[in-house]
Amino acid sequence: MTAWCNRPLDAVYPVIFVDAIMAPFLMAGVVPLVRPFSFTGAPYGLRSDAARRPGTVDLLAADALGVVESFVLQDALPVLDSWTPGRLADRAEANFALPVEERGHPEFSHAAGWRVVNDSGSPVEPAREAAELLRARAAEDLAGWYESLVSSFQEGGRPRALEFLEEQRHAGLTRMKVW
Asked: Helix or strand or coil: residue 61?
């Protein structure tokens, strides 16, 4: 895990966790910090059952640390290393380019933040579409996040939008007590 621990936490946050609520397996992945921060799962990564590892881990068992360590070092790190910020941004833009009815997962919403981080265009259109979709799904707080990103960009351009993303990243990581 040292490869990820020594990286600066800039646009992605690596996670390794046991998901006992949603399903009984280990998960490792990256969470883009260009969207509303949550720790409900990692949208890009690997589950232990996909890596042919045990479906469950008894954290009180003598070999628990070895099982987790093996999953992280042998299976997860190569996958996490493949999810670079550039790859994530490209996927978000490709998803955003699709017609709305073909998008599926709301990955397109990440395009707004990646555009700010990479200085690759205005975040306004993908952020407004994300807010509209989230509002339709009764996720008012998440819709508000994207509206705040738009307001920040319109008030002060990219520098203010980057400041907004940094503030949100700091708040999210602080809530997780990793900052």
From this structure: coil
Q: What are φ and ψ of residue 19, in 5° steps?
A: -100, 90
Give per-residue pLDDT as tens, 14-73: 566 655 555 557 777 777 778 887 655 566 778 777 777 666 677 788 988 888 888 888
Q: pTM of the predicted model, to two decimals? A: 0.77
Q: Is 35 exposed, middle or buried (0-12, 13-18, 19+ CB in 10 A)?
A: buried
Final residue belonging to a domain, choices 82, 97, 128: 82
* C-alpha span between 46 and 28 (Å, rounded): 5
> Same structural domain for residues 170 and 90?
yes
Bridge partners of residue 12, in order along the sequence? 32
Calpha distance 148→67 (Å, rounded): 42
